[in-house]
Each structure stands twice: as structure tokens, then as C-alpha cells.
Write a structure and sequence with these properties.
CATH architecture of the largest domain: Alpha-Beta Barrel
Shape: globular
Radius of gyration: 21 Å
CATH topology of the largest domain: TIM Barrel
Distance between the termini: 44 Å
CATH superfamily of the largest domain: Glycosidases
Number of domains: 2
Structural class: alpha/beta
Strand order of the largest sheet: 5-4-3-2-1-8-7-6
Order of helices and strands: HEHHHHEHHEHHEHHEEEHEHEE
Strand content: 5-15%
CATH class of the largest domain: Alpha Beta
Number of strands: 10
Bound molecules: ligand H79
Length: about 350
Amino acid sequence: MSGDIAWFRDAKFGMFIHFGLYSQLKRGEWVMHQDAIPAAKYADLAQQFAPAPGCAREWARLAKRAGMRYVVFTTKHHDGFSLFDTKLTAYNSVTTGGRDYVREVVEAFRAEGLRVGLYFSLGDWHYPAYAAVTSGDSSQQGPLREFIHGQVCELLTQYGKIDLLWYDGAFYDDKYLSAEILDATGLNAMARELQPDILINERAGTEEDYVTCENECKPAPYGVDWEMCTCINDIWGYAEHDYNYKTVNQLIFLLVNCATQGGNLLLNIGPRSDGSVPEAQVERLEAVGAWLRTHGEALYGIERLPKAFSGNGRVTQKDGKLYFHTLYWPGSTMRLPNLTPKYLTAGSRVCPRKS
Ligand code: H79
């Protein structure tokens, strides 16, 4: 079974959001692990977490201005803090602070007409059964599995239509959190029963609708849908010292490099704990959005060709037209040699080449 992939193929560009208790420490989303902060001490952060009201609407408006077509929001990262209403643990933003950030994000992005995806970490540094299972205690596999299936069920029943489910955090510990331990097959069957159109990534260990690559553009074979995720700088969760920003040109290159080879770019923002987005990230996204307002026709909805163009640049097609992106152009005259119908897929209706 598979979900509704058509919108995903057209979208090309999405917003990843890493936001959670870790945003307060300004050292990225791995800070609990890297600084070896005890779970009980880290949990104190829940009491001080006070993002500005309406921050999700700011993110959604920014995504829209940037020309992004969907969002993937961290409902729970590896730290285990749920940013949604869950009955399965008290360690969640509704219990500790009275706010359901998943609801806020879903409503805000829907209001901008964007698709909504939920990131969910299968690994959980707070939930005791996860620590037990990853220390080799197989008696806790059942309780952990029930917890995970239960939380995914909550996410897919409480917020209306959800377009995409983005698992993470089992992959790296697959010795312990294998597809078998997770019952990933059963988990995804449940997800598709609850949300028949949903798209699911492969990070619970089973082949699903599309494949991901992290911080590298690694096109999947022709015919396989894929998505690259990366940051505007280097670190996903807000990191005060991380000034290693990609330039606007680098970001546009990444977007074109993915889109012309059949993939989407899921580009991350790491808001501060008050919900504000660092200006360096806003500026770059707005510049990419401005580029897309001029060149979007040659990006949204384009289809990868079965055979790569061997000249300088990339050729794609849409609605019977070929679209060409040059990646480097130091000269003044652009020659397009060998741009013949062999670059069209069988079944394409029109070749714009003048005969
Ligand atoms: O959510 C983001 C990452 O936190 C998550 N996936 C993306 C989308 C991720 N989980 N694990 N990994 C990525 C790979 C682990 C990398 C590590 Fe490290 C190397 C963990 C410790 C050393 C990177 C550098 C993270 C902390 C320091």
C-alpha cells in the first residue's frame, strides 16, 4: 500500500522545523546526550518553555514566502519530550505548559495552504522502556512497542488530515530498535488505516513511499521518490554559535540539484525557544522565495528524465515542455548541444525542438 505521492512529487521544497526543550539551551537538539544531562534535570526545561503565542503562524508565513510547499515538524525528538497532547506520558507540552504545538503547527500551515508532515523520533532518551531495550532488556520490547504505536496513533487521529510521517531515531540504533522490535509493518499498516493518503519515510526500517538522505544530495534510482534534508547552517536545533550558513546561491543550487534529479529539498529552520527564527535563516529563505517567484515554473512539478543530460546543466520536463537549468555559466553564449527527443520519456506529447 502506498499514499498520495502526487503532491510530494510536485512540491520540491519543504520546511523542516526542529523545535523543542533543547532550543532553550542553544546548543542543538543533541545537547542532552552530548552534555550527558540527566533526564530529571533536563526535564526541568519543560517548566521554563514559553514560546511566544502565534509562533507557528510566523513559521507558516515564512514557509509560504520562501516558496515551500510542506512542513515537517518535530512532534518529539530523541529527548523524548512530546510537543503534543499524549495520554501515554506526562512528559508533554500540554501537561507542562498548556500548549499543543502540533495542533498549532497543523492549523497554521493548513491556513497557508501547505501540506503537513510530522517528524517522530522512535528513539526516546526519557522513556524508561527505551533505555531498557537499548541496554538489552528484551522484556521491555512489548511496552516500548505499545508506547510508540500509541503515540503514532494519537498523532494520526487528533489533528485531522496528516500528509506525511517522518520517522527518525531508530535507524542509528537498529541493533536494538529494529523493524521487528518496532513491528514497523504493523505500525505503518495502522498509520495507513488511519490516514489512507499518508506518505511514510523508510526510517522505521521498512520500504515505504520514499527514501531520505541527510546532509547529502544522494539521488535515488530513477523511479524512486526521495527527499534530502539539511540545515541552512549546520545544526538542526537552535545553536547560538552555529554561523556556518550556506549562501543563498548554495541553497538554490541544492534545491535545483535535488529537484532536477527527482528529489525534494527539506530545509530546516531552528527557531529560538521563544519561537523566533534567527534573522540569518529568515533572510536566506526569503531570498530563495524571491528566486522561486521568478524561476518557479522551471522547478515546481518538473519531472526527472530517465536519462541524465550530459551537457552543462540539467534538463527536466513538465506538461510537454523541456526545462533547462544551467548550474555553471562562465561564458556569454549558452549552447545546448544534443538536446534531442531522446531526453523525453516515452509518452511525452510535445518536443519543443524546432524541426
Ligand atoms: O533530527 C536531526 C538529527 O538530530 C537526527 N536526524 C536529523 C533529521 C539524527 N539523529 N541521529 N543522527 C542524526 C546521526 C547521529 C549523529 C551523531 Fe552527533 C554524531 C550523534 C553524535 C555524533 C551530530 C553530531 C549529532 C550530534 C553531534
